[in-house]
Structures are given as structure tokens and as C-alpha cells.
Amino acid sequence: MTKGLAIWEAYREFESAIVEAARLEKVHSLFRRQLAIPLYDMEATFAEYEEWSEDPIPESVIQNYNKALQQLERYKPYEEALLQAEAPRLAEYQAYIDFEMKIGDPARVQLIFERALVENCLVPDLWIRYSQYLDRQLKVKDLVLSVHNRAVRNCPWTVALWSRYLLAMERHGVDHRVISVTFEKALSAGFIQATDYVEIWQAYLDYLRRRVDFKQDSSKELEELRSAFSRALEYLKQEVEERFNESGDPSCMIMQNWARIEARLCNNMQKARELWDSIMTKGNAKYANMWLEYYNLERAHGDTQHCRKALHRAVQCTSDYPEHVCEVLLTMERTEGTLEDWDIAVQKTETRLARVNEQRIKAAEKEAALAQQEEEKAEQRKRARAEKKALKKKKKTRGADKRKAEEDDEKEWGDDEEEQPSKRRKVENSTPPAGEAQDLEAETGLFGKSAPVDVDAPSKQKERAAALKRDVPKVPHDSSKDSITVFVSNLPYSMGEPDVKLRPLFEACGEVADIRPIFSNRGDFRGYCYVEFKEEKSALQALQLDRKTVEGRPMFVSPCVDKSKNPDFKVFRYSTALEKHKLFVSGLPFSCTKEELEEICKAHGTVKDIRLVTNRAGKPKGLAYVEYENESQASQAVLKMDGMTIKDNVIKVAISNPPQRKVPEKPEARKAPGGAMVPRQIYGARGKGRTQLSLLPRALQRPSETAVQAENGPAPPPAVTASAATEAPKMSNADFAKLLLRK
């Protein structure tokens, strides 16, 4: 409608240039045809016709013109929507296609599909809808096959297009060799799921089955069908399973179809039973529906003996719905079996159901035990945290006493023993000023004989350090307001006045009630804070600010959750499952920006979002996630971008499917005879080192008898707490000096 006027005008100018009497009627015909079609600027064309024609315009032409004007008004909203929208304008084209299909003009429907595909040739759904319309409405062989061929050429990763292409070729009587070649092309198209290969094999096997005349005992087509079934099973086992780690056909649908064909159409129950036996050995024997499918096949085409045998095996093997299988067996024996058959069936079903009930009771008990263990572990974690806090407090109170004892030891060592020059004690953070250093040198003397040390020096230093600390009040946190509070972390330690700088950022999400930054005892900002809102919806909206860059670092925003009540709570806002519309890009140069990557990716489809992966400091890791509008665009981008070079870096592109995170294994424990659980050995965060060097003098080393007994001998005495273990060896500086100087 928008560009047709130029074509008609060019055509008329060509005809008008030939000044012959016969050509004048041709120009009249062109004007009348053009005025009968809804086009933009029709009024100008009508006025031009009135001026050019010497005779009055016929009434029929005026009626067609008015009719075309009415059609133009109906089409205008859709055309204007296309003019205003930006490419690829898929939604606008879809609405236009719906409108044209309601009217039902085949030429115009075909035209709007072709216009839409010019800008959306990589959208499989559009090709499917177009080919479906041609298959059901026009049914013109050359046109239909041409569109199907273009569809699989533009979207080769879509199995539905290949299946429809095979059906269309069969429908229009294409030669068998051409169909076989097309099927081989489909196998090499590179589908992204294992199930896609099962679907294309099913379509091809259905086609081969329809070629067979089963009235004949043997034929070339039947042998080809059986050979194709065998090849399909081998292909799924080797090619597909090697690539996807699964065959794509866990229920063995291809083998089931083969068994049905052998039983119903070829009267070959022996082959069907062999196939079903193979199906059951592939892990399907525990499903009741599989056994009942086999039973129904035997019921229809086999004999009672094999039906009874199948149900007896089903009773023993089924684990999902054993009651249903038992009911079918008893029903069959009630209808056809003898008294002996009935007794055997009742005995087997009762035994099996009793065993199943026992297993279910054990499973329920095990589940309850696991739940109890989880509760106990949570309680243990809570107690461990409480003990850790108590231990810290105890260490703080013990610190002053320990320092005083060390100072007394220094005095004793200075009076009793002559200090070695190379072993002179160095006190941390106690370097005296220049004047004091001279006095100290004079007091110490040439041979290092030390005068009594001022005992109050360290305590005075601590008082001076305490005087430097800010008077920062502790920040109380009300856990009842967790629903309207967010926890903000990974902020720069150097941020001054965090509450003032963060308030404008969070006020965009709603009214902020309070911002509570956390400071250390020295008054230094610790990099995290709590932001409390007036309303819960504001807190939920604030979670969208997660990973926003603040002073060069990504700010983490997460829900405020009490970890003591929810120790396993973790926040990870991104999906860890397969996302077919999202790509994982690795190998990017660190200098690559989001805008540069978007410029590269948008050439293959509509990019909804790009996330560059960074570390906690905001530095790029060379990884990115690119989200497309649909999975077809993502698949096309994988084919085009994988192996691409960006700034001398070869990138790798794949569909986003993160590996499952491994849960860290807990230290293995064993129970000592008559005692509690004893850990085998717990190493540091980096595991066991290559060398286990002892950093204590040999004179101070003592064999660890407790560990040996816990590992190999009888049960050790009641375990000593960590605090007691650390307090046990108390030695003064004088004791250490005597040990080191002992001859």
C-alpha cells in the first residue's frame, strides 16, 4: 500500500511513452486497475486520470475507486503502525496477518507474510504459520515446497519445520530419493535438544511405514522400514547420547511403535516381544504404564499365557503404582484363570503389597530422621555460634591478664638472665621517640643488661589508641522490620557519610525511613548497611538495584534475613537452569564494554538484556550472559558468533546451562567404640598441604596421644573444649629462655 503507487506510475509512464492509438486503451486499463486497489495517495491518481482522460470516467470505475478508498481506511491503522514502529516490527506484522486472514484474500495473505519474513526471516513460528496456511489453503505444489525449503534454510535448528517439510513433500508426491536426501540434511542441521532428533526420526519412520503394503508377506519397502528402525535406535544410542548425555527417548517410543507395527501389521508377535523385552531392560520395568502397554498389546495380538507372564513380572518389578498392576492381574484371573491361577495371583499380590508398604514406612521414617537431623544441625550451629561468641568475650577478658603476666616475666628475665643480643625482644607498636631511645640505650648498656621496664607502657599505649577511637554508637536492628528492610553490602570502605550518599539512590524506590551504616570500633565504615523503607513494595523495588555500580564497585542489595533462623538462606537472583533464549559468552577481552557487545549481538536478533560478569571489586572476568527475545534468535546467534574474534580474543558462545553447584563435602566422621562422633581429620580451607612442617622446636613437641587413640585405640576421655585446650600450655618468657639455652 505504501510503495505500490510508484510501481503503477512507472508502468503508466512506460505505456504513455509509446504514442500509438492502441496503447491509449492500455493506459486507460492501467488507470482503472490502479484505482481499484487500496493505495496511498489514491486521490492524486484519480485527479490525474480525470485530467488525462478526454472522456468522462465510467461509473463502474468510480464505484471501484470508492470501494478501494473504504478498504484503504480499514488497512491504514496497520500500515501506520508499521511505519511508526522500528524493525523488525514482529508484533505489528502479526496483528496485520491476523487481520488479513480474517478477510481471507489469498493473494493479500501471501503478500503480508512475505513482507513480514523480509525482516523476520529467523523467526521459526512465522515460517510455521505461513507454511501451515499454504498447506491447508492454497495447496499449490511449487509454492508450498518453495516456502518449506526457504524455511528450513533460514531456521535449520527448528525440527518442526523439517517435519512439516517431509510431510509436504510426501503430500505432493515428491520422489522417495529426494525425501531421503532431505531427511539426511535434517539430521546434520544441528538441533539443540536430544528430543528433536527423536521427533525427526519419528516423522521419517511414519513416512516409510505409509509406503509399505502390509498385505504382502515381504517387500522391499518393509525391509527398508525395519532397517530404518534399527538405524534410528543405533543413531540415538551413539550420536545423540554421546552429544547430549541422553538418548532423548527415555520411554522408548520408537521401539514401542516398531513393536506395534510388528504385532498388528506384520503378525510377528515374537519380534514384538523381543522389542518389549529390550524396552524393559532400559530402566522402564519400574513403571506400571509400560507394563500395561505391553499387556494390552499381548491381549490384542498375543495369548493368555504371555499376558499372565507379563502381569506376574509387572507385579514384582513395578514401584510407582503396584496396586494398579495387582488389580489388573486379579481381574484377569477372575475372568479367565483357574483356581490354581487365582491362588498364585492372590499370594503374589499380597506379598508384593506387604513389601511395598514396608518400604514406604521405612522411607517415611528415613525422611523424618533426615528432617530431625536437619533440626539438630541447625541447633548445633546455633550453639556453636553462641560458644564462639562466649569464647571471644573470654579471650578479651583474658588478654589483659596475659599481657600483665608477660610484663612480669620480662622483669624477671631482665633481672635473672643475661639477654642474648640477637634474641632481644621486640614489642609491637612500641617504638619509642628519639629522646627516649637514647635514654633506653644508656640504660641497656654495652652487654645488653636491661634495666627494669616500665610496666605501664603497653597499657598507656592502649589508652592512647582508645582515645583515637570514635565514639560510635552500636546500631540496633529490629528483626520484625525485615520485610521493609534491605541489606546493602560490597560498598567501598572509603565511602564517606554512606547514609547521605545512598539516600538519593534508594529514595527513587520509595520513602526511606532510615539508613544504618555499620562502623568498626575505630569508626571505619565496614562496607555494608541496612536501608529501612516505609512500605514493603519499596523494599522489593530496591532489590532491582542489585549489582549497580557505586564508586567503582558493584553494590549488592539482598533481602534482610536473620541467618540464625535461616542458616541456609542464600540469594542468587539469576537462574541456574537451562535457558534456551540466553547465551553464555566466554573469552571476552576485559576491555569489552556492554555497549560494544550489544552492538555485535543485536545483528542476530532482539537483545533484551546483557550482563557482564564481574568480581566483587567490579573488575570484568571476561564472561557475559546475553538474553534474546526467543530461543530461535539465541540459536542463530550461537551458530554465527561461536568462534568469533573480538579484539584479538576468540570467544566461545553456548546456550546458557550452568553446571550444578557441588555441595561441599563435610568432614568424614566415625564413631569411636562407646563414645561420641570423632572427626577423622580436619584440614584448613586449602586442604592438606604437600608438606606438614612442624614450626615448634623439637624440645617442645609432645605426641598427640588423644588423636592416636581416637583414630585407632579405645575411646578417649571426655573431649576437652577448645578454650581449655588453648589455655593448657602456659609458659613464661623465662621458661622459653631456659629451654633455648639448655645445653
Automatic annotation (TrEMBL):
Main location as per UniProt: nucleus
Entry keywords, A to Z: mRNA processing, mRNA splicing, Nucleus, Repeat, RNA-binding
Top-level taxon of origin: Eukaryota
Organism of derivation: Leptonychotes weddellii (Weddell seal)
The UniProt record lists the keyword Translocase: no
Gene3D superfamilies, sorted: 3.30.70.330, Tetratricopeptide repeat domain (1.25.40.10)
Gene assigned in the entry: SART3
Ranges where the record places region Disordered: 372-479, 701-729
GO CC terms, sorted: ASAP complex; cytoplasm; nucleoplasm
Any one GO MF annotation of this record: RNA binding
Pfam family, one: LSM_int_assoc
Name under which the protein is recorded: Squamous cell carcinoma antigen recognized by T-cells 3 isoform X2
Ranges of Low complexity composition bias in the record: 720-729
